[in-house]
Amino acid sequence: MKNKQLNIDDNFFKQFKTAEELDTFLHGIFKRGVETMLQAELSEHLGYDKHSPDGINSGNSRNGKNAKLVKTKMGEVSIEVPRDRNGSFDPVLLPKRKRMIDKIEDVVISLYAKGMSTRDIEVQIKEIYGVHISSSSISNITEQILVDIEEWQGRPLEDTYLIAWLDGISFKVRQDHKIINKTIYIIVGLNTNGCREVLGMWLNETERASFWMQILTEIKARGVNDILIACTDNLKGLTQAVKACFPEAITQLCIVHQIRNAIRFVPDKHKREFMRDMKNIYEAINIEDAEIAFTELEKKWSEKYPYSVKSWATNWVELTSFLAFPLEIRKVIYTTNIIENLNRQIRKYTSNKSMFPDDNAVRKAVYLAIQSSYIRSQQRIANWTLIANQFIILYPERVKLNYIALKH
Q1: Least confident span in 15-24, 98-107, 117-126, 300-309
Q2: Over the stretch 168-207, which tens digit does the pLDDT of each residue have?
């Protein structure tokens, strides 16, 4: 029997810098996928979902888990196999007394990397096992991911985030027999251990400042009391929304977004020169030099390209906030590159989907892409020890020394 080839964009694998990173990712996806599928199989066997009142007095119930060492082509993986109290549960995907899963890696990678297509999974399980699992059963298995998303989305957050990057990414989704654009809102926070952390994802039809207000209110309810610096694009009203929820936060608009916005109405013959003059602003040593550079830009270009010059003047305070910080902090706050890198990973992960059938399909795909970046997001940012000490000096009352891990 030939293996079914997976339809995964080669660019997806370029995120892994070493064979070890790739192996760690595949092992994690495989383990998580198998355990999720086993939990779904047990729910189908019992006739009710976990924590459902239907299980009361049903005659059978969940009874913990057994660790089982499974041999695969990737090596040995420890799988937690759920049990039922009556001992009658014999999972199809990992039968009792069987210690080797033959080719199931292909099924699990397909399940996660191909957008949860029940038809693809049904075909592959038929090819691999020679047994038929209905599309409805496969749908039940994939629906377990929504439970994971709810738990992840509702988890408690830290009290303080040194930096938060806010951005949105749009997808085409079918709704009411139409295909419309919807936006996934994402916040990435730099916690007091120096690690990036995705605080959550939220789906809405369009990117609006009013919806950002709801999101920021939600993260406050999950435990966030303070954000020192918020980095955003130039969405109208977003700065006000941040200030309304976190009054002490410094807001920094993305310089890259500003450059793109400013040169939209500058013709090609002047673009290079105009960009060189703008560079004198955002590469200034301090705010005084930036103001001098802007004055020169204004004198030179305001008559020809008033909109481009005005876009700097209108948002001057938020565009130049980063100049008040040391160079090491400036580098991580003057653009939203950190969250845009995550968005690129999400795009790679979902590139084979031109349209999603519903909201839940988008949530699953984006959540899985975020989880695939989890290993790398646990790494501390560059120059962390230096940056941590700078934050302590700048905000002695808001960043407590014992909250920050300065070692390794």
Answers
A1: 98-107
A2: 899 999 999 899 999 999 999 999 999 999 999 999 987 7
Q: Is there a single domain that holds both residue 215 and residue 138?
A: no
**Quick one: DSSP state of residue 250?**
E
Pairwise CA distance, residues 230 & 262, whole Å: 22
Higher pLDDT, 151 or 117: 151
Between CA 145 and CA 69 the distance in angstroms is 23
Residue for token pair 């988008």: 362
Q: Within 13 Å of residue 284, how many CA atoms lie on the same side as its CB?
A: 22
Residue with tokens 């969250």: 339
* Predicted TM-score (pTM) of this structure: 0.70
Examine the domain organization and report whether 200 and 275 are in the same domain: yes
Residue 404: the pLDDT is: 52
- Does residue 341 share a domain with residue 262? yes
- The reply to whether 404 falls in a domain is no
User: Residue 206: which residues within 8 A CB-CB, separation 6 or more?
Assistant: 181, 182, 183
**Which class for 389: exposed (0-12), middle (13-18), buried (19 or more C-beta within 10 A)?**
middle
Q: What percent of the chain has pLDDT over 90?
A: 44
Supply the range of the domain harboring residue 210. 160-394
d(CA 104, CA 73): 10
Q: Taking CA 210 as the corner, what is the angle to CA 205 and CA 214, rounded to the nearest 5 degrees? A: 90
Q: What pLDDT score does 104 carry?
A: 47
Structure token digits, residue 194:
């120096």
Q: Are residues 84 and 221 in the same domain?
A: no
Tokens linked to 314: 């209108």
Alpha-helical regions (H) of 47-117: 104-113
Tell me: do 219 and 326 sit in the same domain. Answer: yes
φ/ψ of residue 250, rounded to 5: -85, 130
**What are the residues facing 183 on neighbouring strands?**
170, 204
d(CA 80, CA 39): 10
